[in-house]
Amino acid sequence: MRKRDAILSTDQKALELNLDKYKYGSIVEIGAGQEVARRFFQVGAAAGTVAKTMSAYDMAVSDDIYGHVDRYVSRARLLQMLDKEFNQVVERLSHLRPRNTTFFAYAATVTARSFQQNKECHGWIGIRLQLHPGAAPSDVIMHVRMLDDTNAQQSEALGVLGVNLIHGAFFHHDHPEWVVEGLGDGLTPERIEVDLIHFSGPYFEEVENRLMNLHLIRSWLTRAVVFNPDGEVVVPGERFYRKPVMVMRGSFKPVTCVNVDMMAAALKQFSQLAAVDESSILQLAEITMNSLISGDNVDGADFLARVDLLTSLGFTVMISDYVRFFRLRAYLRRYTLKQIGIVLSVRDFGFLFDEKYYEGMEGGILEAFGKLFPDNTHVYVYPSRPRHADASELVTLANVKVPANLEHLLAHLISNDKLVAVQPDDNSHLHIDATEVWQGLRRGRGEWEKDVPDSVAQRIIDSRLLGFDTE
To answer: What domain of life does the UniProt record list for this protein's source (predicted)?
Structure first.
């Protein structure tokens, strides 16, 4: 199997492009200077690649060139820029350049650190390019967050990222995973985060964009990606902005009736909080990467099936590599100051109170809970009962067992409403175990169908999802 050449420096990538006389186009950048263009100029021979560079900083000038847009740092503005610049370079130069020329337009619209603002620094970046002379163009666009402390550092990081994108799109378009992996060359996760990427056009028709966004996590370019109820990848900051969030963690292999009841019951209690507007609550199902990985690989079909089943029930879905609960809470708090609720089954309670889980933290479990509950965050605990057991065997927040040395900590969290008992809407689902359901569906039709929503069972059967009827 071929492997991606990861040893090229940023300057080497820029020079390789400059020396290829058949790749030619425009580089336009709004915000954070013209660092991508500078990279091509400083290595020499830029006349072989760069037809035009520009920065339309003034809003009136920008609108005059590209047309009006509601938000200047947006996907809509980026697409306007790509449309204008690509069409212009093709119309003006296609009859003058060699017939084998493949044209491109690189565009970026970002808001970087400045002395006037200290808000989140982010932007939209993309390339539109021909991957065969005269071919219809293909696009790669992405949303980025710049994490450096100064404008100069952010500009420098964007320059590296832009060169990586242009180089990868041209030289690795037949391996889109390599395009994703190459974005991080010469950068670290502490400098740039790419939380959305989208491939489109004739040369990317077979690309499954949801898998490419999952690959962002595996490539250390982001810690989480988010899908809306339509199954589309969305920018987390836009999806969570100023919304109260109720999140349910799990493997959802498959999503079961008990998952649906957990969320519904927790929402009833969550919505009673004074600061929560029930109509604005975002219902989030979160899957951690370690539940998707088998060995070193991710089963793409398994991942897509889980996302599809959850979104079909109206959930927003997040895939993350946040194993510890407090890191999940910190991620959500980045985008919203509203109330955050986390609902989990009492079956998973031992995991929350396992001190081994917090090894490596100076303050251990106390530090972890301090970071989980510093403000408007509550954990809702849903009861459980073994299959065929009577009511006396119901396990709840009131009688769940924790290590003796942590009993006072548990009592403290309950007394201060950090841990809240959930009253089920439907007691008939308390016995359901997702592992048993999955094992059952692998044997074909059967009793497991009663343990998942009707629509989920039908999708699993019709599309043979999650290994249905393979044993």
So the answer is: Bacteria
